[in-house]
Amino acid sequence: MRQFAPPAVAIMALALTLAAAASPAKAQRPPAPAAVVKAGDLFDAEQGRMVGAREILIRGDRIVEVAASVSAPPDATVIDLSQCRVMPGLIDAHTHLLLTQEAGEGLSEVAARDHAVDGDGYRLLTAAQYAREYLEAGITSVRDLGNSGRFLDLVLARAINEGRVAGPRIHGAGPGLAPAGGQMEPLPHDPHGLVDGEYRIIEGVDDARAAVREAVAAGARVIKIYPEATPQRTRLSPEEMTAIVAEARRHDMSVAAHVTSDRGAREAIEAGVTSLEHGYDLSDETLALMAERGVWWVPTHTSFGMARELSSAWPQPPSDQMIRDHLSEEHQRLRKARAAGVRIAAGQDLYAPTVVGRGRASLRVLDAYVEAGLTPAEALQTATLNAGRLLAGEGQLGVIAPGALADLIALPADPTQSLDALAGITLVMKGGLVEVADGSGACASR
Fold first, then answer.
1. Which residue of 141, 282, 302, 343 shows the fewest CB atoms closer than 10 Å?
2. Distance between CA 300 and CA 360 in Å, rounded?
3. In whole angstroms, how far apart are CA 241 and each of 202, 228, 282, 392, 426?
4. Which sign, positive or negative, has the C-alpha torsion 437, 153, 393, 290?
């Protein structure tokens, strides 16, 4: 069995010490006291609509009661958001916090920079910046799916959990389980071990099971697999994928499958994966099978505005009409998936530099869903209720309800009328603690 050493202790310690100095977050996070949040209008993610004024009683990191009026304990902190709209913290189900890929770069070039030039310390510091940007945008949980070195995502998750840096709750995968070559373009010569530095290469059924156990032992909360690894031509075998899923289920772990072709999607579904990521070529038959098997889809779609911004850095940017033609295919596929009853969770798959930062740019995937025909409220459900169910099961994330984690955001305008309201977030609470506020936490007059 192949063994990998964790990141150098000295490098980790340096990176996290420097990150702590750059963040106002405390090294040891205090327990959240009891609190009562007075919401002027509440987005009920289960109903998909605003339901009016509510009070939310929180003890520790959990919501205890949601009602028109609650009895506040004597020691409770009252957070007056009576002029605000309040909704669950947002969730991005497909992130790459440890990856930055410039226009025109291949993944081998990125890996060479990360491993041979910048190193793990710089990579962690950059990821800590991205994490803060996600949190400031109202994203309180993410599922980070590989391209993160040797478990650097789990190092960052630990630092966030301990309060050393600010960021969303991370459900990390560690290195993705991949066929030979990973996602790198073919490398006849790899003296620096770039492939093994980013992927866990699977070499048979027994090794597939061992790879799952390695990820679990390192602290992964989800297993990421590559049934196909474009631009490579290599593929995981159906038997390897079936073994991965079986071993993951033994450890109560979900499996996210990177698929770009319909063939890869079908093989992953037959193996029993939890979710399909991307799915650029899903057929009507495959969508029907996903609905039948309860397989989640995370469509990492791009809004028109985001596509224009990202493609502007290309040597020959496409015309607006070319962008619209490409996006129309995505829109049609999403509409077919909804009609078939496929469960959809939001994920942006962002790794390119953007002018508004990772967090704000990540929210543009919701614009893409609205452009495809969803209402703003339906799009918000994909990033709250649905993504919460994908990450943590029923009633734990993405809802403001008794028993759920106390993740919520406040904003002055109604996001079910326009997603533009998400640009005006004034307060972010994660696990019962106010992580981001505009100073007063109040909203403009309604």
1. 343
2. 15
3. 10, 11, 19, 22, 44
4. positive
Mean pLDDT, consecutive 10-residue stretches, the chain (446 aa), reads 35 39 48 88 98 97 97 91 97 98 89 90 97 98 97 98 97 98 92 94 98 98 96 96 98 98 98 98 98 98 92 87 94 98 97 93 97 98 98 97 98 98 97 87 52
Instruction: Record the tokens describing residue 309, joined without a space.
Output: 């911004």
Contact 221, 255 (CB under 8 A): no
Cα gap 306→290, rounded to integer Å: 28
- Rounded to 10 deg, the angle between the 238-250 and 262-271 helix axes is 40
Work out whether strand 54-59 and strand 62-67 pair parallel, antiparallel, or are unpaired: antiparallel
344-366 as b/e: b if 16+ CB within 10 A: bbbbbbbbbebeebbbbbbbbbb
The pLDDT value recorded for residue 13 is: 37
- Bond into 231 cis (ω within 30): yes
CA dist 317 and 388 (Å) reads 36
Q: What are the phi and psi torsion angles at 130 (to 5°)?
A: -60, -40
Question: Which amino acid is present at 277?
Answer: E
Q: Which two tokens mark 281?
A: 């070529």
Pairing of strands 433-437, 427-430: antiparallel
Residue closest to 400 by CA, chosen among 34, 55, 32, 33: 55
Q: What's the pLDDT at 8?
A: 39
Contact (Cβ atoms closer than 8 angstroms) between residue 171 and residue 142: yes
Given this model, what pLDDT does residue 104 score?
A: 82
CA distances from residue 328 to 82, 278, 325, 331, 333 in whole angstroms, order as listed: 41, 16, 5, 5, 9
Residue 134: C-alpha distances to residues 11, 90, 142, 256, 348 (Å): 24, 10, 9, 21, 12
pLDDT digit string (tens) for 45-58? 999 999 999 999 99
Alpha-carbon gap, residue 233 to 242, rounded angstroms: 20
Place of tokens 């509510």: 54
Residue 442 pLDDT = 66
Any idea how long the chain is? 446
Structure tokens at 106: 């291949």
Name residue, tokens 């992964």. Answer: 220
| Global confidence as pTM | 0.92
Taking Cα atoms as reference points, which of 280, 236, 275, 289 lies closest to residue 262? 280
Residue 410 has φ and ψ, to the nearest 5°, of -120, 145
DSSP designation for 222: S
